[in-house]
Specification:
Shape: elongated
Structural class: alpha/beta
Largest sheet: 8 strands, parallel
Strand content: 5-15%
Number of domains: 2
Helix content: 40-55%
Distance between the termini: 62 Å
CATH class of the largest domain: Alpha Beta
Number of strands: 18
Strand order of the largest sheet: 1-10-7-6-5-4-3-2
Radius of gyration: 29 Å
Number of helices: 23
CATH superfamily of the largest domain: Homocysteine-binding-like domain
CATH topology of the largest domain: TIM Barrel
């Protein structure tokens, strides 16, 4: 067969797609060791190879992605590593022989599945030995080249390439990394650094695989080529980011989409293209068909391919706005619900309430931070739990009170690092009214100052001193607004300061008359023009006449109409249900001027809030 290096000189080669995806589609459980199927079900593995060859693959990869001693040990198969790898090559060789096609066999080497020093306990020498043992078995069985793929640690990929070079110095090597949604590796390395580091390993081809879909990998390919213009590149994307649908993992990118991007990858300089998780022989066939339209190559000067490329080479890549930001920008009425963190260690009840609210149709959960200055679990930890376990976006309440500049900035970085993007900036309740009145109550920033720090500093990649934080944050920032203030002119001045600082949206104090909000906004518009930022009107459902009287007489800024109090009193034991009816009626009225609502449940009555959301959704 013609050698790999000679063939990439002549044009772009098409590799195969996902082995694991297709094996699972054919009945293999995710719980079992796919590599061991080389021994226990060779016909199944060979059939996948045959389909990829028929789809037009120039290269097929052995079913040995996890066939190293560390990963095999999880299944008690570490002593069979050599046998599994040799069988993987033999199955691929038989499939190629039966096809009578000039197809190359790549020995597939994936990550060890353990962290190596300095980020783990496995020493570099141990890692190199494990890679060398796998590579030797693959080479002795007849692999024509190696692909070291889906690596996320530059320390690990260096050991892998060094091990392969030591045991099979004459065989070509492809070394490929994977990236997260923010275009960095799991350890935070950017494409420029990755490309330069991979080139320094001496691999014949370097590249990117797995990660997201074709659009992201085309962007990464361009950035990496800019960093290492003399290198040859491979690119093998997932079929988009995986989604869980009906208990199954699904990938959104279809074969036709892959066919379009095959030409773009070729134009961008990829010598090898293929697919990773979620791709099938149909995806590879579409890529093959697209490339075959241009037998003389896909020279950019001869093609006019129009693809949605929003980022030029070398520019920092901004992630998509938060779901809350997207909904408000699209003019969709937003349902936000506030939840208080637990006072103890258990978050089970809060998570159960969040699950109920999500099922009812809430769009975002707001998590308060030490409400009423009472000791509670960290709000950003609760946000993380809700987003990961319930799957609904959150808004982190971020008070300035009690935080100096160091803590403010450190907490913001931590919040962003765990995936929080919506932040509601408030002053915070004074400690004098809470559990620890003697606690420090100082602050370095007022809310407008913190908004400015986030929007004009962090979101521009700078801290308060002007020093770089490495990359810009992507916070969507909310601010407080009182629609029934004792001094409307002062409230408008505060609103103007927050707008100038960069506030993206506003959450209001509870209102009980829709016209109160409308009158305030009309007063603002008369002086400064229409308020262009969305307002989420505060809705605090009443649960009893006692509750209504307390709010009306003892909470500043809240005024409840006499007729509402009368209805609550007449309702008796059904007062909570009447409170729901009043809230639903109010929400329907505020829809004419509000961008959404911000519901504040009382006494953890999430069931009542769910009724309100379901009644007004749509």
């Amino acid at each position: 067969m013609t050698g790999f290096l000679e063939r990439i000189q002549a044009g772009t080669l098409v590799s195969d797609g996902a082995m694991g995806t297709v094996l699972h589609l054919r009945g293999a459980s995710f719980d079992r060791c796919f590599d061991e199927l080389n021994l226990s079900n060779p016909a199944l593995v060979a059939e996948v190879h045959r389909e990829y060859i028929e789809a037009g693959s120039d290269i097929i990869q052995t079913n040995t992605f996890g066939a190293n001693r560390f990963k095999l040990a999880r299944h008690g198969l570490e002593d069979m590593a050599g046998e599994i790898n040799r069988a993987g090559v033999e199955l691929a060789r038989r499939a190629v022989a039966a096809s009578y096609k000039d197809v190359l066999i790549a020995g597939d080497i994936g990550p060890l599945g353990v962290r190596i020093a300095p980020f783990g306990r496995v020493q570099p020498g141990e890692a190199r030995q494990a890679f060398a043992a796998q590579a030797l078995a693959l080479a002795e069985a007849g692999a024509g080249l190696f692909i070291i793929e889906t690596m996320s640690d530059l320390y690990e990929v260096r050991e892998a390439v060094a091990a392969v070079r030591a045991v099979a110095p004459s065989l070509p090597v492809i070394a490929s990394m994977t990236f997260t949604r923010d275009d960095r590796t799991l350890l935070g390395d950017v494409p420029l650094k990755v490309a330069q580091a991979l080139a320094e390993t001496g691999a014949d081809v370097i590249g990117v695989n797995c990660s997201g879909g074709p659009a992201q990998l085309l962007r990464l390919l361009r950035q990496m080529r800019q960093a290492a213009p003399q290198a040859r590149f491979s690119v093998m994307p997932n079929a988009g980011w995986p989604e869980q649908v009906g208990g199954r993992i699904m990938y959104p990118a279809d074969p036709e989409y892959f066919g379009e991007y095959a030409l773009a990858f070729c134009q961008a300089g990829a010598s090898v293209i293929g697919g990773c998780c979620g791709t099938t022989p149909q995806h590879i066939a579409a890529m093959r068909k697209a490339l075959d339209q241009y037998p003389d190559g896909c020279n950019p000067s001869t093609l006019d391919l129009s693809l949605p490329l929003e980022t030029e080479e070398g520019e920092p890549v901004a992630e998509a706005p938060s779901q809350l930001a997207q909904r408000l920008a699209a003019g969709k009425f937003v349902m936000a619900v506030e939840m208080d963190p637990p006072r103890g260690l258990s978050a089970h009840k809060l998570l159960a309430g969040a699950s109920l609210l999500k099922e009812a149709g809430a769009d975002v959960i707001n998590v308060a931070d030490s409400p009423m200055a009472r000791m509670r679990m960290s709000a950003w930890a609760v946000c993380d739990l809700v987003q990961r376990q319930i799957g609904i976006e959150t808004t982190l309440h971020f008070p300035t009170r009690g935080r100096n500049l160091l803590r403010v900035q450190g907490d913001l970085l931590a919040a962003h690092a765990i995936g929080l993007r919506n932040v509601f900036v408030v002053m915070g309740d004074p400690t004098a009214i809470g559990d620890y009145p003697e606690a420090m109550d100082n602050y370095d920033l007022v809310p407008s100052g913190l908004i400015k720090l986030i929007k004009q500093g962090f979101n521009a990649g700078l801290d308060h001193s002007g020093a770089s934080i490495g990359q810009p944050t992507q916070f969507f920032v909310g601010a407080a607004l009182n629609l029934c203030p004792p001094d409307p002119e002062q409230e408008i001045k505060n609103l103007r300061r927050k707008l100038k600082a960069g506030a993206d949206f506003f959450l209001t104090q509870p209102i009980y008359r829709a016209e109160d909000g409308l009158h305030f906004l009309e007063r603002y518009a008369a002086a400064h023009g229409e308020l262009e930022k969305p307002v989420l009107a505060g809705i605090l459902p009443l649960v009893s006449v006692k509750h209504a009287n307390f709010l009306n007489h003892e909470v500043p800024g809240i005024s409840i109409p006499p007729e509402a109090i009368a209805r609550m009193e007449a309702a008796g034991e059904q007062a909570a249900q009447v409170g729901v009816e009043l809230a639903v009626a109010l929400v329907r009225q505020v829809k004419s001027w509000a961008g959404g609502i911000y519901i504040m449940p009382q006494f953890h009555r999430y069931d009542l809030v769910a009724e309100i959301v379901e009644s007004v959704k749509g």
